[in-house]
Structure formats: C-alpha cells, structure tokens
Design brief:
Layout: E1 2-3, E2 6-7, H1 11-18, H2 28-38, H3 42-69, H4 72-88, H5 92-107, H6 110-128
Antiparallel strand pairs: 1-2
Helix pairs in contact: 3-4, 3-6, 4-5, 5-6
Amino acid sequence: MKTAGVSTTDEGTASQQAGQVSSPLSDPERIQAIQDYFEGDAELFQTYSEACMAQFPLDIQDGNEACEAGDLQALQRVTHSLKSVLLTLGYSALGAQARDTETLSAAGDATAANANWSALVAQLNKLNSGGDNRGL
C-alpha cells in the first residue's frame, strides 16, 4: 500500500502509524525523512524510530553525566550523534538544537552548552513520551 507517498506493506502498519501523535504518515517532515533516508519505506523508518526512542534515555544519561562532570568533549560527542539521528528522523528543529549544543560544547562555552542541553533534554523527553513536537 502507498500512503502519502510512503510505502507500507500492509494496511495495519499505515493505520497504526496514522494513529500516533506526530505520525510519520501525517507529518510533512517525517514524510520527507522517510523519502530521503528510507527510500519511502515507512516500516523501516518506524523500526529505526523505535530503536532511537529506546536509545534516547541512554543518550540523555550520557549527556547529563558529561554536564555534571564538566566534560564538554563528551557532551559534544553525544550531541553530534543526536544531531544526525534527529535529522534522519525528520526532527529538523531538534537536530538544529543538538547542533547548537555541539557547537557551544566545541567552543568551550559550558554555561551556554549546559543550558542548551537542558532545553534539548526537555524536548527529547517530550518526544519520547509521545508529545507533539511538530511546532519545534
């Protein structure tokens, strides 16, 4: 089945995804990410997205530990990875926020990097809990 330019192998997958907040099949950024990075394969996107959602708490823990230790290089590594993942998932605003935190970490601005990290964590937690981040 093809829905909104996105391929799915069965109707259940499409309807299941369409029922989620910020569903890949109803959000233009996610639809574009599916096309750009997953060759239109919504099931592959969903599998990748679920794996990323499971990883986010571990990334948050690593970033929090880096902030607490004043380890800007570690924070830079975490945010670099998050930047790429978030862009691949179609969350460009969150990807930009991660990029900004990465840049601040690389520049050695601990105060600004930590503040950006805290804001990013709040958005990742909202995303991971099913909150609607389309307006970010």
